[in-house]
Amino acid sequence: MSRVKRISLSALIVVVSYVIPPVEADEMKPSRTSGSSSQVASPERWQSEVQEGRRLLEVKDLSRAEGCFRRALQDLNSASHPSMTDRAQVMQYLARVLYMQDEAPESLALYKRSLHLLSKTYGERSEKLAPLYETIGDIFADEGDFLRARKYYQTALSRASGSLDKNACVELTTRIARAQEKRGQLREAEENYWSALKMVMTPDGSQSTDRIEQLLSDYISLLIRTESGGRVLQSAYQNELLKDRLSELPQRRAAPGSEFSSAVALQVKDSTEARGNDNADQVSPAPPSSTLPSPGPSSSTPPSSTPSLNPRIPSDSHADSNALEQINQQRIKFYERMIAADIDSLGAEHPSVARDLSTMASFLISLRRYDEARSLLLRALRIYRQIYDERSGPVRQTQLMLALLADEQDPATANIDLTYLQTLPRIPLQAQKLEVAFRLNELSYLMLCQGKIDQSLQTCIWGLASTARTSGDMSMLTAGNMIDLSRILRAKGHAPEAENLENSARSIVRRKMLERKSAYL
Fold first, then answer.
1. Helix residue ranges, H only, 227-311
2. By three-state DSSP, how is residue 278 classified?
3. For 374, what's the count of Cα atoms within 13 Å in the CB-facing half-sphere?
4. CA 430, CA 436: separation in Å to the nearest integer?
């Protein structure tokens, strides 16, 4: 049984197509010339063999495809003035088929001969040789020869350093890191993983989410292997994950931006400014790119002007808000009728009335109408105290809710300053997903435990950008991420920024606790 090879047919086709343009179909005439092998083959014969071999290769008829490519190569070798690029092309087709049939030695020999011919044609340092070096490196890696694989990968990267796009550069750098890790060169591998991650997290990065996750997983595995003598710290982000409350998140992945929505938002903004309406909804500007966060404005920013990383499209917000307000008013009237009916039938001091008051207060809390909710909870607490002991569940639960409401209404602690989030760097949309956010924060945590403060800080900032845009800037995961980042900022001497983050995180946690507790009233 043949071993399963990592090099796919499509990947190898890309290599050949990059080095030498494929022979066009209209240049390959299907006719064959007959005669002995001593006769010079016609120019069309080898092309017909290549065309048939490629067709057989697509249907996985490897044995017959091999025969076609061998005959094509024999025809080219017997030609009077064969083209070196044509010979190199056919050699690569034949090498591919042989490797797919587990004939690694002969396949490698053909790839190297092809590389030698192309070096004579284009020069040893030509960027056109990079894909072929990468393919040979893949074969050595599959065969377990990671020393040679790393050399070929590095040569491919150096040959095409000026012409490779960022994705190809990331892929080659990652393969070099994996080969170094297999060789036990853990420090060198870590440096290359870090270089690849920095390229991936740039705003114009276009790596797929799966590739980003794989890179982060490989990086995390490497740090776990090298962890020795590191400190054991606590991560607020991971503690929140252990509570398994992901179902409460309003979203799990960022949505791509819309140019139409941005245009509508600008029109709405201009019109509201013209009318002098300072409280109109406005879309937050795109956060600027920065390496280190800068302190945001003071915590005196009113909640209504707090920017959000997930702005809503304001085009239909007025109609939607009116409809929602009508529904809320209907629910409030329903609660009022229920309370009045219980008072008429059971009396104003009955515990059922207190429960009705608490239920209505819970709904008002969800609407952020805290003064009205507080008034209802005080009425409910007075009824509970007349009937139950001071240590009873209803009394203690209502007291807790009143305390949380008091904190939420305190001007010194009520505001949640999220302007700090606007200074976070932009990251690609493919990285704005919970699975990526999980790995970024785990990687940052491992770096912090091992004393790699600078790298931990940058990775945590990426993680916060991913978490806030993925789960919402008011989620508990974002709060945990902010607490972890504040610890790293303090280690770097950025105490004001750290305190700002901690205060905002505590406000988010308190508000979420208030909403969660009110649901059980």
1. 236-242, 259-275
2. coil
3. 12
4. 9
Please check whether residue 133 is in contact with residue 115, taking contact to mean a CB–CB distance below 8 angstroms.
Answer: yes
The phi and psi torsions of 433 (rounded to 5 degrees) equal -150, 145
At 465 the pLDDT is 92
- Cα separation of 467 and 365, whole Å? 26
Helix/strand/coil for 253: strand
Which amino acid is located at 272 in the chain? T
How far apart are the C-alpha atoms of 70 and 78, rounded to whole Å?
A: 12
End-to-end, the C-alpha distance of the chain in Å comes to: 66
Distance CA 447, CA 441 (A): 10
DSSP string, 88-105: HHHHHHHHHHHHHTT-HH
What are 290-295's contacts with CB under 8 Å, separation 24+?
290/423, 290/424, 290/425, 291/425, 291/458, 292/457, 292/461, 292/494, 293/420, 293/423, 293/424, 293/461, 293/485, 293/489, 293/494, 293/497, 294/423, 294/497, 295/420, 295/496, 295/497, 295/500
In terms of Cα–Cα distance, which of 195, 202, 204, 237 is closest to 434?
237
Inter-residue contact 28 to 159 (CB < 8 Å): no
- pLDDT classification of 311: cutoffs 50, 70, 90: very low
Task: For the chain, give the percent of residues with pLDDT over 90.
Answer: 37
- Contacts of residues 144-152 at CB distance under 8 Å and 24 or more positions apart, as own/partner, are 146/179, 146/180, 146/182, 146/183, 147/179, 147/183, 149/175, 149/179, 150/176, 150/179, 150/180, 150/183
Structure tokens at 496: 């004001």
Nearest to 57 by CA among 96, 109, 115: 96
Total-model pTM? 0.66
Q: For 215-237, how does the pLDDT look when each residue is reduced to its tens digit (9 = 90+)?
A: 999 999 999 888 655 566 667 76
Distance CA 307, CA 478 (A): 15
The per-residue DSSP string of 378-389 comes to HHHHHHHHHHS-
